[in-house]
Every structure is written in structure tokens, then in C-alpha cells.
Amino acid sequence: TIIKNENNLKLLWLLPIRFMLDGLAGIQFLLKGKPKHTWSIVRAHFSLYRRVFRIFRRKRKERAWVEEMQQGPPRIVGKIPGSIIWSYFIRGKKKFSNLG
Length: 100
Hints:
Radius of gyration: 16 Å
Shape: globular
Structural class: mainly alpha
Largest sheet: none
Order of helices and strands: HHHH
Distance between the termini: 19 Å
Helix content: 55-70%
Number of strands: 0
């Protein structure tokens, strides 16, 4: 979702941070005795690695289509500022309604 919705320049710094946070979440799950959760993170990463070039090709096509069809300024309603992961683990925001 991050790759699809963020611009490529922002992804250069955002993806490494995301991978680090995923690693920390995986360690936290292991320490809490939830290895299945950690395994889910590992599987998600390998799925991304297998599909990353396909995702970028699709993103390029979809962006071109959106620009072609766009009428008026882009909408940003519903976009959450910052990282949901950071808000959940660091700021302790457990509900989506508290993220804003």
C-alpha cells in the first residue's frame, strides 16, 4: 500500500523506516510469545520482494490513468498524517479514530 500510494522519492527514506519498524514489531511479538505474528511479517516481506517490480509497473500505469481522468485538484480527505505503526506502538493510539 505504501509503494502504491506514495511518490517514489519519498519511498527512498520511507521504506527503510517501515522495514525497521516491521523488524521491531516482529521482535516484540517474539518477546510476547507470538511467533505466528512474527512469521506473518516475514511472509509479508517475502511476498513484497517477489512482487515489487510488478507493483511499480502497475503504479506507473494507474498514475497515468488517474492524471488522464482527473478533473480539478487532487483530494486528500481521509489521509492520515504520519505513520499508523508509529502511532500504535510509540504513541499508544489503539483506535483509528484517535490517529488524527
